[in-house]
Amino acid sequence: MIQRRLATTLLATLLAAGGTCAFPAATASPATPATAQAPSDTYYEIFVRSWYDSNGDGTGDLNGVTAKLDYLKSLGVDGIWLMPINPSPSYHGYDVTDYEAINPQYGTMADFERLVREAHKRGIKVVMDLVINHTSDQSPWFKAAQDPHNPYRHWYEWATPATDLKQISATGDPLWHKSPDGDHYLGVFTAEMPDLNYDNPAVRTEMVKIGRFWLDRGVDGFRLDAAQHIYDDSETDMDSPVVLKKNLAWWREFHQGIDASNPHAWLVGEVARQNPDDLPPWMASLDAVFNFPLATRLVDSAKQERDRDIGATLERQYDAYRAAAHGRFDDAPFLSNHDQERVMSQLAGNPEHMRTAAAMLLTLPGHPFVYYGEELGMRGEKPDEHLREPMRWYRTGNGPGEPTWEGWSAGDGGAVSVEAEQADPHSLLNWYRMLIQWRRDVPALREGALRNWRDAGEHVAAWELDDAQGDVLVLHNLSGRPQTVTLPMQRFRTLLKHSLPGTTIADGHLRLPAYGSAILSSG
């Protein structure tokens, strides 16, 4: 305990002095209350089933999330995104049967409310996955809809004699599915996930009511699953301006509806588009959308050790965000999520590439998201269950709270675990802690207006961030060789942060070691 306090005190002293510790204390105590420190604006995605098992039944649960809030606080995150926690017949929960209840495998409503209270005590917000494009085919609503005379019939979309039952959905799967009575219903994803009919006012009213229900229980916002597919159903809808307009109108209505319960509720939408130009229109209806094109660009840049025009692309995109949202700006950058190959697998297990990808992510404005286990370097490839395997808490893979509902497929050894990486000051876990602390120390990393910086060379990703306190210059050496960057006259001569020893400024030049990052100020 004494060693822990000394390490924490040393780190705090270094930061207060404006210096940079290459790696934060390996066993840092939980962060001080949020009221006493700047935010990091960093969120952490949790699959509850795989996180921490509080009762020994092999399944992670809500009490397990509560038990590990101090770990999250020590990482530096300000918010968590809980993947679906509603009752569902599936392991993943993206087909809901009851929107105002808790999956009994995860606990009770009292457990959830306790989690929210404990998270808020630590300055951690709770964002809940809201899956309202479709329900489960086991939902009481859908079961009632089998009767053509039941009001719930109109809560779903049914084929008419003129319908082309061979249509392909926007996700590339069959769009129409046969019900037990022989009728066909619309389901963009699978037959087990019938789509709701948002042209029905009763559906719209109910979904606003559900949003308010959870806000009244302390939730701080929602991750909106399949936000683009409320009306984007078939493959022919994907680029339809009419469909886009209907989608945006619904989400504006939803936003306005939940504002009545909490005008500060945060809405981040899953809009899985790869063209950056497709995202700005959503900023007028939602607070943020996940930046899928940027995730691809960041990972590719780290893998290829070359800047894939990150700064220029983001400058255009962020200017478009502000134009669409009347001057407001937010973004939700990330590297991978529960539907994608884990970052370390995309990077073929290269630890230096993983570090540069993380450094780029966590020096961008907005609310970056970290997928659980990413900070450890967990690997994972399809099928989906392998992307959502249990969090690795212990070197041996066994210990109190370790979920056992699914095994590990990636072959990660004991070094890829919280237990091992806590004790290693040079671990990826402590690299993430350092970068997230940078976000607290340098406000421009969270809030700055981004401008491209073109003078760093192809192996260095660089951008300026301008906020009320002045400009900072962010640079990342993506390559395995030192890089020398010529700095503009009278600007960016103060080294605020650096990730590796050997980062120096002399005679108007910045020397960046291999895979090193630096933040410079004009002061």
Automatic annotation (TrEMBL):
It comes from the Eukaryota. Keywords: Carbohydrate metabolism, Glycosidase, Hydrolase, Signal. Its cofactor is Ca(2+). Pfam families: Alpha-amylase (PF00128), SusG_C (PF23915). Residues 1-22 form the signal peptide. InterPro entries: Alpha_amylase, GH, GH13_cat_dom, Glyco_hydro_b, O16G_dom_2, SusG-like_C. SMART domains: Aamy (SM00642). Residues 45-439 form the Glycosyl hydrolase family 13 catalytic domain. One of its GO terms (biological process) is oligosaccharide catabolic process. GO terms for molecular function: alpha-amylase activity; cation binding. It catalyses: Endohydrolysis of (1->4)-alpha-D-glucosidic linkages in polysaccharides containing three or more (1->4)-alpha-linked D-glucose units. The keyword Nucleus does not apply. Its EC number is 3.2.1.1. Belongs to the glycosyl hydrolase 13 family. This is Alpha-amylase.
